[in-house]
Amino acid sequence: MKSSMLSTSLLAVLLASGCSMLQPRSTEVAPAIPSQWPATASTAPAVEVDAIGWRDYFVDARLQTVIDQALDNNRDLRVAVLNVEKARAQYRIQRADRVPAIAAQGQMTRTGGDAPVAEQFTANLGVAEFELDLFGRVRNLSEAALQQYFAEAANRRSAQLSLVAEVANAWLTLGADREQLRIAQDTLAAHQDSLRLTEARHQLGGASALELSQTRTLVETARTDVARYQGQVAQDRNALTLLAGGPVDDSALPDGAVLDVAAVRAIPAGVPGEVLLRRPDVMSAEHLLLAANANIGAARAAFFPSIRLTGSIGSASDELSGLFDSGTRVWSFMPQISIPIFQGGKLRAGLGVANANRDIALAQYEKAIQSGFREAADALALNDSLDDQLEAQQALVTAAEQAQTLSQARYDAGLDSFLTLLDARRTAYSARQSLVSTQLAQQSNQVALYKVLGGGWHERGV
Asked: Where does 29-99+134-303+347-452 sit in CATH, by number?
């Protein structure tokens, strides 16, 4: 009796403490990133960045409509959602090994030969090869599957975040190219008017053949730009259709360059650098690291004995009609212990693989943190830079248009050559095109800022 109680106590101690002593307790993470943001944060009121959903961040109602459509119909996001469902099912399969599987079984056995034919009918309810998880092997495998499920859930959030950013960038690009097309068309119309006047003056001897050829050069250059931007607008429309998962209504498309797409211009004051740890790609890498850690515990547990229990209770009879009569009860109990003695280095190699996978996952986790910090630092650095560029570009457009107006007046008065007017026209046209490109870069950086901070966790109406 005392021996039985001692054995029971030892099993309880192993069951309670065996798991924790085999799985590594902690893994040191050293991402080697600065403790502060490399740029000065905004003086705007402090808000929780992870609580700003895309509906609150992207203020244009047309863009919100397109993002909504993409989230409902995009196939890549649908695959990410299905991967989550798959990982959840795999975790439930693995978790089921932690509890006994009870099954009912009926069997008929007929034997014969030189002896008379004999029949045996059995029906039983029992457990087949249930492993007593003394050293945490099954529990660690279940934990690894759970962390894999969490990683897939984070990947789904990452796919959604990337989709929102891609749709916003594609939408902004379409608007910018439409604006570039409008500028090219307006310039083409102005140059065509100038060409008609120059042709008339050339016929009257008031303009040289060189001046006529230079004017035609302006016309053909603008015509080339119109054709190029028409193709780009068509490509932008196709890209947006693919991201949205179907045709986008014309009313939801931008009719020109968008000057203010985001409600938050920079990181508000008081936002800690730890917000990067909430990025879905970083969280996915963290869960994969935890899964690899759990797999080490399972690999270590394989070095220890395993006990499997098989037992059943039921009834057996020579006749089917008497299967459940009194006096036909049978039971069986078959414990099995397996002690690894010689495996040819298989178990040690398995542990080496688990350790290597953990080290790989650790390096990937640290890299995810470093990449997140670099992306956020880049977006912050470009914030002020692009604001300055936009201000300078707007001043350049104003000066170039004024110079073109004055040059036209001086040319009409015979004070300047046509070459001076030609240069002023080209400069003004180029300045307007560069202004649109700078506006697009500034708005795209706002989209990047939303993405690199991990987006929002909470959405209105979702």
From this structure: 1.20.1600.10
